[in-house]
Amino acid sequence: MADKILNLKIDGKEVHVPEGTTILNAAKSIGIKIPSLCYSPDLPAWASCGICIVHPVGTQRMMRACCTPVSEGMDIVTHDPGLVQARRTVLELILSNHPDDCLTCSRNGNCELQTLAAEFGLRTIRFDKILKNQPVDDSNEAIVLDRNKCINCGRCVEACQIMQNVWALEYTGRGDKTVIGPVAGKNLSESPCVRCGQCAVHCPTGAIYSTHSNRKIWDRLGDPEYTSVVQIAPAVRVALGEEFGYAPGELETKKIYTALRKIGFDYVFDTNFSADLTIMEEGTEFVNRFTAGAIKGHLPQFTSCCPAWVDYCEKNYHDLLPNMSSAKSPQQMMGACIKTYWAQNMKLDPKKIFSMSIMPCTAKKWELQRDENMSSAGTRRDVDTSITTREFAHLIKQAGIDFENIEESEADSPLGQYTGAGTIFGVTGGVMEAALRTAYKLITNEELEDINFTSVRGLEQVKEAKIDIKGTEVRVCIINQLGNVDKIIQKIRTEIAEGKEPSYHFVEIMACKGGCIGGGGQPYGINDEVRKARIAGLYRDDEQCEIRVSHKNPDIIKVYKDFFGKPCSELSHKLLHTKYTERDVYEVN
Which one, out of 48, 79, 102, 482, has a CA that is 20 to 30 A from the CA of 459? Predict the structure, then answer.
């Protein structure tokens, strides 16, 4: 049954929208912008800031546009002198509790509060300054919490609790004593936080942000004793351009390679290569489990590429850790290859290699520390530093690079060539699709005619598919966003406990909505339109690749022939696989 269409007026313009549409979105549909601070299209409207107020024609009754649904015949005014003055007063009250250190703030130039203050021409504040004077929590390897800049909009809490079901953040206190943070005054490092960064990417100010490594990077690049090596993740190439005025989803891969060389890196590799390598290891592991039969507790196999999901599982699902693929993530596999296989070929001391990754993900910063005790080359870490897409944009600007007009170049070999399967790792369902393309070959020793598994694509919260591999049914599940994990996990737990045939053989889980393209380290301003554009960009990259299955990547074939021997060999298990540890939800340091 089609949605009922309601007819109304906004600022004198006729609007026709489905029943249930809010005033804010109805206005947006006809090009009218109503200012707001607490609203995000990803989250339930909470109506905390009061800046989006509007009123019906002929009355001064105020309504909050973000949470008020339209009704038939409604006639709304969104801007008049009274509304402007009321919004200005709200902004002044918020700013009276907000520090004025914009120049050194992580969000300077990209802060929603700063933008609104500029739009309203605020030069002075009529109210006394009363700051929170809360300590900055930098105990976490990935996320910093500065409550002094918090405006209590609630976006981070909603993202953490509703989107992710992590519950690391909540409200403490009442009225002007309200602060946001972990329960009982704990630090982020002691909380259930999984470093996914969705709190940071949804925060409108600089109250929550990712840790920064730019100074360390410049120091290392300036040290002649070190050979500097960098890798870029799949999702970075379809999002970085947004920081330079490009539309979401535009592929700028070869410009990125050039920019990294201009910044000063000696060698530029592509994480898409190690995504192909991950498929060979994880895919082989799955085939070994699957063909051995449904050994109790060994199926389904969970993907292990997302560190926030790994963190979540280590804290919440101890009984299912044996089901996690032991394959390291592409970031960590690339780091291992750089400091072993590549270092040996180049006759370089691994301890004198500075290895950096550029990731769409804040949890990747934690992953470096997680694998410290499993370093492959006798160094402290296989990857020394990880930065986000946002930090990478800062590096480019600091280096004075004209990104729009920069020339294109290729990645270095032998760790730069990739297939279409490698690039789709950055989208929800992409790891599964890439694995199935190669699993078919590993099981049947034949190539697929149609490698496009469209049933696992899209932004649906949970996607299920049955794949026929020459008469053998493989059942898969793709979980998009941590908040959707638990109901599927409970189903799996019940089946294992009762000894039933598993509903799924292979399960992909990505912590962030849309997969890595929606990661906590990507450019601000995320919504489903942006996610879809970035996803489309990676599928275009896949379609443009001459080779679209991991097992046909010539450099992958060479690295197994010359070094690892075969997937899941003794050497590859030592260098490319990891172990999991049962940990408490609330950690004590």
Answer: 48
Domains and CATH numbers, the chain: 5-79 (3.10.20.740), 95-210 (3.30.70.20), 230-576 (3.40.950.10)
Angstrom CA distances, 67 to 56, 138, 158, 367, stand at 15, 34, 15, 39
pLDDT at 425 (0 to 100): 94
Q: Is 141 a catalytic residue?
A: no
Active site residue 285: yes
**Does residue 73 come out as left (phi exceeding 0), alpha (psi in the -120 to 50 range) or beta?**
left
516 is catalytic: yes
The per-residue pLDDT for 9 is 95
| Tokens found for residue 259 | 């920019």
- In the predicted model, residues of the chain with pLDDT beneath 50 are 294-296
Task: Give pLDDT, residue 172.
Answer: 85
325 assigned to active site: yes
* Catalytic site includes residue 364: yes
Assess whether 282 carries a catalytic annotation. Answer: yes
Catalytic residue among 282, 314, 391, 508: 282
Marked catalytic residue, from 242, 281, 314, 367: 367
Q: Name the residue among 207, 95, 230 with its Cα closest to residue 143.
A: 207
State the pLDDT at residue 312. Answer: 97
543 catalytically annotated: no
- The encoded tokens of residue 149 equal 């800049």
- Residue 374 has what pLDDT? 58
Q: Of these residues, 19, 72, 119, 372, which one is catalytic?
A: 372
Query: What is d(CA 407, CA 480) in angstroms, rounded to the nearest whole number?
Result: 36
3-state secondary structure 219-286: HHHCCCCCEEEEEECHHHHHCHHHHHCCCCCCCCHHHHHHHHHHHCCCEEEEHHHHHHHHHHHHHHHH
Which of the residues 189, 325, 355, 550 is marked catalytic?
Answer: 325
Q: β-strands 53-56, 63-64: how paired?
A: antiparallel
How far apart, in Å, do the first and last CA atoms of the chain sit?
A: 55
* pLDDT score recorded for residue 544: 94
Residue 449: active-site member: no
Give yes or no for a contact between 213 and 221, defined as CB atoms under 8 angstroms apart. no
Q: Are 230 and 267 in contact (CB under 8 A)?
A: yes
Kindly name the residue from 49, 196, 203, 305 that is annotated as catalytic: 305
